[in-house]
């Protein structure tokens, strides 16, 4: 097995209040900054979910067409790069014109996250 490289999210500000970090609930590796949440109005398999432009320390599964609450989308599940826990998914393609803004963005499920205040 090869060496695993993990990205640690930087602290925000110079001595000011630092941003909270969302981490994998199972292994506590950084996944995203709470300040980078684009929307909190999403639902996942396990309840509330958050929309992000950028996440770290994840690997992608294969493309899969999935019927979600807003219609048909092509998505890839995202897995923690350390423990392989499913954390959410990435939107690859939206078939409805009104949903195109989601393409390339990530969903992290709140139930799979642990929030660490820094």
UniProtKB/TrEMBL annotation:
GO terms for molecular function: metal ion binding. It comes from the Eukaryota. Residues 20-117 form the Yippee domain. The keyword Metal-binding applies. InterPro entries: Yippee, Yippee/Mis18/Cereblon, Yippee_fam. Keywords: Metal-binding, Zinc. It holds the Pfam family Yippee-Mis18. Belongs to the yippee family. This is Protein yippee-like.
